[in-house]
Amino acid sequence: MTPGAKRRFFSLCPGRLPYGAALTLQEELVQRRRRGEDDVLILLEHPPVVTLGRSGREGGLRLAAADYARSGIELVHSGRGGDVTYHGPGQLIGYPILDLSVLGRDLHRYLRLLEAVLIETLAAFGVTGERIAGRTGVWVGGAKIASIGIAVRHWISYHGFALNVADDREGFATIVPCGLPGVALTSLEGEVGRTVSRAAVTEVLIDAFSLHFASEHAGLYDPTHPEKTVLA
């Protein structure tokens, strides 16, 4: 970015993508960001997968590895922060590829901004999200609705957050979410009592991201042909 230029980011929405393919995409975009390309917010959905973050322990798994495979759930050790979590259809996953130098390389500030984006998104649907001291993520009435687990390479962020849009109690039942026995889980649809369009949540979240990161949404990003990036 040239000195004095307004900050901007592009969004990339590849639909449903396996966890490994999404990680490869993130790693490519981290390298592109290092070479001076713009920030990118990836918003997608994963097929069923359980990931163990850097502080994850296999005691957080309620099934044997073979049972996860038989259930159609991939089991992956991840380089993100955090414990054990589940991703699957019905979640909106966000992977911001951002140069954190503009935030003073302050990881705590970055985490609080991600929480603010999620809280702002929920508010647009009439749901009051909140923080719980000492527990990263977003909660509604004591039940967790969004998880956050980040990683940083050369002060460029990857991995990110997962917002429960629809209920998937079967997937979460296979783990101890975030390593917290007895933690209650909820979803946006569960809170509002109706079906919510994933596209609508995506649109609201992009606006909230632009607001809290003081960065202009510059449009849709094509990672294979960045010169063909188009305005939203």
TrEMBL record:
It catalyses: octanoyl-[ACP] + L-lysyl-[protein] = N(6)-octanoyl-L-lysyl-[protein] + holo-[ACP] + H(+). SUPFAM superfamilies: Class II aaRS and biotin synthetases. Its main location: cytoplasm. PROSITE patterns: BPL_LPL_CATALYTIC, LIPB. The record marks 144 as: Lowers pKa of active site Cys. Keywords: Acyltransferase, Cytoplasm, Ligase, Transferase. GO terms for molecular function: ligase activity; lipoyl(octanoyl) transferase activity. The active site is at residue 178. One of its GO terms (cellular component) is cytoplasm. InterPro entries: aa-tRNA-synth_II/BPL/LPL, BPL_LPL_catalytic, Octanoyltransferase, Octanoyltransferase_CS. It comes from the Bacteria. Belongs to the LipB family. In the reaction, the free carboxyl group of octanoic acid is attached via an amide linkage to the epsilon-amino group of a specific lysine residue of lipoyl domains of lipoate-dependent enzymes. HAMAP family: LipB. This is Octanoyltransferase. It comes from Desulfuromonas soudanensis. The lineage of its organism: Bacteria, Pseudomonadati, Thermodesulfobacteriota, Desulfuromonadia, Desulfuromonadales.
